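User: When convenient, might I ask for sequence and structure tokens for a protein?

AI:
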Amino acid sequence: MRPLLRLPQQGAGRLPVQDRAAARARRLPHLHGAFADHYYLRPGGAIFKVPDALADEAVAGVNCTLSQVIYGLHVLIQGAGGLGVQAAAVAKDMGAATVIVVDQILGRLELAKAFGADHALNFKDVPDRKERVKLVRQWTGGVGADVAFDFVGFPAVIPEGIEMLRSGGTYLEIGTISRGATIELEPSLLVWGSKKIIGVIQYDPWVIPRALDFLVRTKTRWPWDRILSHKYPLEKINEAFAASEWHNKETTSITRAALTP
């Protein structure tokens, strides 16, 4: 059995980012960051055993993408990256009747279909927003999605996702983590549609064992070996980030990259 660790997050404090980083560097232990050979597990951190039935490649995304979508999903999916693809699988496993994934990269949409998406809507094939909303309503019996997710990270998609919801639907905002990114939003769309927006960033420790069990149960149902497409040693981390960037690209061969010990 291999250990999988979930670490508690430290408070941000009131110092500027540079000053906080310098202060941490002066304190023992010094192992505060990710992408390193060692990490200090503070008291109170949760530790979980990885089942022997799961390969390293299968669990690489547990302590982020898979656990986060399980926590948020208790189905329109904007973005077919690691979060979106695994959200499609989780939604189907939870009994979602129709799962729709929207993206503009063909390879990602094809992977989402392999992970249970019933419809893959290519943003480039349907450039008109009204037509995309019309298609979503058509695929959901004319009412719209019960739940919509932003996994894109560009806030401009949010108003469209809210419009694709049914009356009383819920919009989960997970993808936009950058401070300062803003949108114009008409609040009456929420009021007259009785719609909700919920932000999801972290998850409780109980989610990780559930995610591991999910991987074991669906080991042969979904092509998990296709999620992690590339591996890089730690000294090539900058190359890994550059190769994984998908913005302004027609396609990408990387679905998910991992650092090897």
